[in-house]
Design a protein that fits this description.
The chain has 334 residues and is α+β, with helices and mostly antiparallel strands. The chain has two domains: 149 residues, PurM-like, N-terminal domain (60s Ribosomal Protein L30, Chain: A), CATH 3.30.1330; 167 residues, PurM-like C-terminal domain (Phosphoribosyl-aminoimidazole Synthetase, Chain A, domain 2). It has ten helices and 13 strands. A seven-stranded mixed sheet has the order 8-10-7-11-9-12-13. A four-stranded mixed sheet has the order 3-6-4-5. Helix 3 links the parallel strand 4 and strand 5. Helix 1 packs parallel to helix 3, helix 2 runs parallel beside helix 3 and helix 4 crosses helix 5. The protein is globular. The two termini are 37 Å apart. Bound molecules: magnesium ion. The site of magnesium ion has 5 residues, from helix 2 and strand 8.
């Protein structure tokens, strides 16, 4: 059904491959010179600053070809970087994509990957403006750099959380980690859980609403697990936090699984990665405004705890006792 890449690539040549991969690329008026010259030339909007974030996805470390179909892998590759720009309050405008391609990868896989990548790019008005391709001897490697812009006073950093601020999270947590665990165990996975792992939607409209209204004092996207990621906010803001375990929002699919197994896998909720939800802090006087603002852009949002003046990330059970966590998030080096 599919042809191996190598002979097909040899026939196409590098430039043929690049024009094939970028044929559906979205054009944006901010791109003065796009793909095809030594470097891209882009124009920032007046008064805005540049935000840049890069992410790497490596086969058998971050994804497996047997689980991740190429279309959704393309979307997810870009989503991870767009999520980082959004978590700063930035408006994503441009992306760079580099691929190290193994010789056994069917050309059709790349076509589908690009279809997914460019579909998400187009949904968010992000222009692909360059990148690189080379051969790989050890699986597919995808590197995506996203660039965005924002007015300086709207950029939301990790360092702005204040004692007594509320801690909020969008959507639900733990779904991607649960889907991954079920896949690893060879168990059945519902489509709802699977799509959270394979095609996570970056919470861009919510992030921009928070940036534009100035409601969030600090913000981060949950890519490595709530405890690890909020730990960065706490550290950079020189504060601590108290999170109420029972307040963390869980999806119906996650609750179903927990009910079937008579146990809530709290580790997945607290330390599971790749949910790409937003976690942010805000002054308690803004509760109503936050609820209204998130409702307007169609995002669920839940208050899960408060920022403390003393350091440390504490999770408490409903009865007020401290929940003790065995792990503190996804460690890239284990
Ligand atoms: Mg991030």
């Amino acid at each position: 059904m599919t042809s191996p890449t190598l002979p097909a690539l040899a026939a196409l040549g590098e430039f043929g491959l690049i024009s094939r991969l970028t044929a559906g690329a979205f054009k944006h008026k901010s791109v003065l010179t796009g793909i095809g010259d030594d470097a891209a030339v882009t124009a920032l909007s007046t008064g805005m600053q540049l935000l840049t974030s890069t992410d790497m996805l490596i086969e058998d470390v971050h994804f497996r070809r047997v689980w991740h179909d190429p279309y959704r892998l393309g979307r997810k590759s870009l989503a991870a970087s767009l999520s980082d720009i959004a978590a700063m309050g930035g408006i994503s405008r441009w992306a760079l994509l580099s691929l190290a391609i193994p010789s056994d990868l069917p050309l059709e896989f790349l076509d589908e990957f690009m279809r997914g990548f460019l579909a998400l790019a187009s949904e968010h008005d992000v222009a692909l403006i360059g990148g690189d391709t080379c051969s790989s001897r050890a699986g597919l490697t995808v590197s995506v750099t996203a660039m965005g812009e924002q007015y300086p006073d709207r950029i939301v950093r990790r360092s702005g959380a204040l004692p007594d601020d509320d801690i909020w999270v969008t959507g639900t947590l733990g779904d991607a980690a649960l889907a991954l665990k079920l896949l690893e165990n060879g168990e059945a996975v519902s489509n709802e859980l699977l799509s959270r792992l394979l095609d996570p939607p970056p919470r861009i409209s919510a992030a921009l609403a928070l940036a534009e209204t100035g409601l969030a004092t600090a913000m981060i996207d949950v890519s490595d697990g709530l405890l690890a990621d909020f730990g960065h906010v706490a550290e950079q803001s020189a504060v601590g936090c108290c999170i109420n375990l029972d307040d963390i929002p869980l999806s119906p699919a996650f609750r179903n699984h927990a009910a079937q197994h008579s146990v809530i896998p709290h580790q997945m909720v607290l330390s599971g990665g790749e949910d790409y939800e937003l976690c942010f802090t805000a002054h308690r006087s803004n509760r109503g405004k936050i609820a209204d603002s998130m409702k307007k852009c169609g995002n669920a949002v839940t208050r899960i705890g408060i920022v403390t003046s003393f350091s440390g990330v504490t999770v408490v059970n409903r009865d007020g006792s401290t929940y003790s966590s065995q792990h503190d998030g996804f460690n890239h080096f284990t």
